[in-house]
Amino acid sequence: MEKFLKIGAITTTHGVRGELKVYPTTDDPQRFLDLQEVILTNGNKSETHEILAVKFFKNMVILKLEGISSMNDAEGYRSWDVLIPREQGVPLGENEYYTADVIGMTVRTEDGEVLGTLKDVIETGANDVYAVQTEAYGEVLIPAIKPCIMKVDVEEGEMIVHLLPGLIGK
After folding, report:
1. How confident is the model over 69-128, as pLDDT tens digits?
2. What is the CATH number of domain 99-161?
3. How far apart are CA 14 and CA 123, in angstroms?
4. How do the domains of the chain map onto residue ranges?
5. C-beta of residue 63 within 8 angstroms of C-beta of residue 38
6. Is 4-86 a CATH 2.40.30.60 domain?
């Protein structure tokens, strides 16, 4: 299980005072208002910054963070991810999972056959779709709906699926 959850990705700067435009990857962008600090990372380096201000513009979150005071400072954070500790994540309901917990799972059919590895979660609006990389069929897209997803075991890193007719070329 991941220690940190990604809640956004920095796209660009906003204004001349070091504000950052963040594309939210959380279901509830308003949650930024409840946070005291965030962790910025580019994969090689991580920094914790106190949140000084939060604004919303169209589908973006505008963050003003401690230690980033100019456009030049902010420019260096383009394409960085915005993380929070798992403990600060939104409480999940029944049959809800953090994307970070399902990516990389082994996906098996209800017959016990290994189908492949869950590589991506695609948000479609109606329901999520799981992109599973398989050896036999390439990428298989499985809707994250009750008739298809029989069991998700985060601790074991395994998902059991029922393949509806037409999902793969058998």
Report:
1. 999 999 999 999 999 999 998 888 888 888 889 999 999 999 999 999 999 999 887 889
2. 2.30.30.240
3. 26
4. 4-86, 99-161
5. yes
6. yes
